[in-house]
TrEMBL record:
Family annotation (Pfam families): ALAD
InterPro entries, A to Z: ALAD, ALAD_AS, Aldolase_TIM
Top class in the EC scheme: lyase
UniProt keyword list: Heme biosynthesis, Lyase, Porphyrin biosynthesis
PANTHER family from the UniProt entry: DELTA-AMINOLEVULINIC ACID DEHYDRATASE
Name of the protein this chain belongs to: Delta-aminolevulinic acid dehydratase
GO molecular function, one term: porphobilinogen synthase activity
């Protein structure tokens, strides 16, 4: 008798395929990254991220209301800092009336129940485009962690639900957690970018925030002394273990598609929610190929989102969140 098992039976029509579908995407899976700029009635398209924008606070308010209507209930905020406010220490990052702090309040006022997460790293504030303080050609670890903890506190004071340190300094989760506890922010969550790779896929994001490392004497040209080497796998487990031990509530792997093996490793190893960031370069590649008519945009977006979730992501930070939610509704 041949064949005894016919796997195609379970694929023979859409109803049976839906019945046995293992991975399902819902609006609850998404964290929506949002870029904020100073100004009024400003919506600037990011050149290398077609159909993605930087919003001034008034339009940010409109955008988050729309997200909420679509069932997208969590956002991740990034700000584009005016050049004249940048320095080496991220002074502006601690300004209680800075753009990030105002953005947090704007979003919370517009949609009180939306979950607000904030990027914590110095690069948008750094005159040198680094995530920490630069001295003698080095990115200082402990001094940077101290500033980042103050920055996290400032975001919590402005009303952020979660802070999301994306800097990869050692020990920063503990420094941040202690600072938040000392100031009685017991309920402020930490989503740590714990396995963040030194990736070439961040290019469009650095365009969006004008935050690339500057080309100057004694300034490291890349972020390889703090972000991880793409060739490493066990190191991701070590990094993530440390962040969980130091008090992270959610851990993140970044970028997405090239690192789904890491996602599965961490999903199997740890009992905390796993977030994956499908980054700007991943977005740009799909947009560019679709523009040329070489790929079916919607189908590829759904397939990649599905792959990220199937690999083990509980949370997906994605510039495609709105597209996906519209496609699946
Ligand atoms: C910086 C930061 C980066 C991203 C998020 N936070 C870029 C970098 O590390 O240079 C990248 C996000 C993306 O590419 O979409 N702390």
């Amino acid at each position: 008798m041949y064949p005894l098992k016919r796997n195609r039976r379970l694929r023979s029509n859409e109803s049976i395929r839906n019945l046995v579908q293992e991975t399902v995407i819902t609006p609850n899976d998404f964290l929506v990254p949002l870029f904020v700029v100073e100004g009024k009635n400003t919506k600037e398209e990011i050149a290398s991220m077609p159909n993605y924008y930087r919003f001034s606070l008034d339009l940010l308010e409109k955008e988050v209301k729309e997200l909420w209507q679509l069932g997208l209930k969590s956002v991740l905020l990034f700000v584009k800092v005016p050049e004249n406010l940048k320095d080496n220490k991220g002074t502006e990052a601690l300004n209680p009336n800075g753009l990030m702090q105002r953005a947090i309040k704007t979003v919370k006022n517009a949609v009180p129940d939306i979950l607000v997460m904030t990027d914590v790293a110095l690069d948008p504030y750094s005159a040198y485009g680094h995530d920490g303080i630069v001295e003698n050609g080095e990115i200082l670890n402990d001094a940077s962690a101290e500033v980042l903890a103050k920055m996290a506190l400032s975001h919590a004071q402005a009303g952020a639900n979660f802070v999301a340190p994306s800097d990869m300094m050692d020990g920063r989760i503990l420094t941040m957690r202690q600072t938040l506890e000392n100031e009685s922010f017991y309920n402020t969550g930490i989503m740590s970018y714990s396995a963040k790779y030194a990736s070439a896929f961040y290019g469009p994001f650095r365009d969006a925030l004008d935050s690339a490392p500057v080309d100057a004497k004694d300034i490291p040209k890349d972020k390889k002394t703090y972000q991880m080497d793409p060739s490493n796998r066990t190191e991701a487990i070590k990094e993530t273990q440390m962040d969980i031990d130091e008090g992270a509530d959610i851990v993140m792997i970044k970028p997405g598609l090239c690192y789904l093996d890491i996602v599965r490793d961490l999903k199997n190893a740890f009992q905390v929610p796993i977030a994956v960031y499908q980054v700007s370069g991943e977005y740009a590649m799909i947009k560019a190929a679709a523009e040329k008519g070489w790929l079916n945009h919607d189908a590829v977006v759904l397939e990649q989102t599905m792959a990220i979730k199937r690999a083990g992501a509980d949370i997906i930070a994605s510039y495609f969140a709105k597209d996906v939610v519209k496609l699946i509704s």
